[in-house]
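Bumping with the actual sequence this time:
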Amino acid sequence: MADGRSSATAGHRWSHLRRTLAEPLVIYLFVTAVLTMLTWQAVAALLQEGRPGVAATVIAAVACMVAGFWWNGLLGGRQRWWPAYVLVQSTLVVVLFVATRIVVGVDISVAESALLCLAGEALGTWGNTRRGFTLAGAYLAAAAAGVLLMTPPVAWAAPLNQFGLIAATVIVLVVLYNRADAERLRAEALAAELRASTEQVATLTRNAERQRMARELHDTLAQGLIGITLQLEAARGHLERDNAARALAIVDQALTSARGTLASSRRAIDDLRRNPDDLASEIGARAARFTRETGVRTAVEISGEVALSPQTREHLLRVLDEALANVARHATAGQVAVRFSDGDAGLDLQVTDDGRGFDPDAVGDGHYGLVGMRERANLLGGSLLVDSHPGRTSVRLEVPR
């Protein structure tokens, strides 16, 4: 467990190091270049004044400050030692101010520029937070105080305007950079959530596909094979009683059923491949096919808008197929009415026959037609209503808006 945490910490640090080198590297190089240029000018002036010891002090202070910038940045900035870091950098600024402004009086703003760099670093480290703005404000206030201290009151306007313009530019740029960085991190988090959601959708899609294939297998193969199995069992019983003629007749019926099941399977595959867009035409075509295969008259009535999603069309057509198949197997009907409407209240598909009827509550195990239709109704957010008595059976799918 500890090894895992150590590895994760090392990976985080390496990730931060790459990000630090890739994104704000230019800023660190710019800060280093500015302080180096100002230090060179200050050292040159100090050497002209005959102050090599003070020049060496300035060089050492600036070198320590620049090293601190890089060290703090590469380690992430927000560390437990940040108060000590602020204290050390502030002390180096005081050393620079005393060396260049008080001891010798060189007119080079090394200390003020260092404070401006520290203000930008505070916002870069802590972002647009209260702590970041507080530290930046303290550094800028100290820099402004230094400018005022070393300038006569009558000449305050020009240096304050110049310093204010530079400070405002730096702060605005850093604040905008922080906002852009926060948006980037938010985009990365959203992208990670999107990837997780995509994987979840893929899992749900696979599960839904399994359920769909289970329903398709029932609608085609399972029902046909159940009928064939019952016929073959009956044929075996007649053979055991030496009634070969009856057994042969049942075998012929089983062969006919097998051919019908094969044809139904092929039709189901064709329907899945076709996925028709014109729902009204498809309902009419399936009703006409039912009439051809069974001889039962079928009336079709369609009204309203029928431009539906592929999933909704598929579920509706499968419910229609199952309802018609049940009529063909069990109803002994002479006429069937298929009605479909798509109105403000929702979708309404109704299949009504004039057959012998059945008791929906008495359907035994192993008969999954009603189960499959109810599953499809649930997937659509609707309900399946079955009303049956001798002379009239109605199977109705209602999907509210």
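The tokens above came from a reply further down the thread. The beta strands are 297-304, 335-342, 346-353, 383-389, 392-400.
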